[in-house]
Amino acid sequence: MLCTLCSSVSESFCEDKKRQYFRCTVCDMIFADPDTLLSQAEEKLIYDYHENGPDDIGYRKFLNHLAIPLMDKLSPGMEGLDFGSGPGPTLNLMLEEQGMKMSVYDIYYAPDTGQLSRQYDFVTCTEVAEHFRKPDKSWAQLIGLIKPGGWLGVMTCMFTKETADVFNLWSYKGDPTHISFYTPKTMQWIARQFQLRIEIVSDRVILFKK
Ligand SMILES: [Zn+2]
After folding, report:
1. One GO BP annotation here (predicted)?
2. Domain CATH for 42
3. Domain assignment present for 119
């Protein structure tokens, strides 16, 4: 199986009742067998049940894990895009409250592709990269949306253990819409590949500077 991020040879990593997972020998990406993915309609049905929104204090607190370190890099008046804003856009509002000018894009809930035809001072992508069906294309697209010198703020749970046993029991992997998993090594690979500076803030928050 070829890696969905870097096209290198990947080895079988583990298997559960639903599907097989592969791990790349070069970029360390772990990905679900592309033949076992849900249809887009099935996937959207699951997203429709997500009830997070701007009135949810807990959700705001969760998003602050990215917003606070990212805000440190930005100045008021900067223009940003929240890529994959989901059914209850919230991070864009939080950043607007901090003086940013925000646009949103979401393949299902805000599908105006006009937002993807320009560049921004920064792009946020929270709980989205684990859903990428074609990570090679999606990461290139994300990075293409950022002006030189701009920032990309990503939130996705990285897999920081080694063994397939631990991966198999990982709750993050249990969501059938989660199909692309990154390790710190994968994030470093992305930074090198696209010539970005990387700051790994935590197991869940990564900042890239173009
Ligand atoms: Zn790879």
Report:
1. methylation
2. 3.40.50.150
3. yes
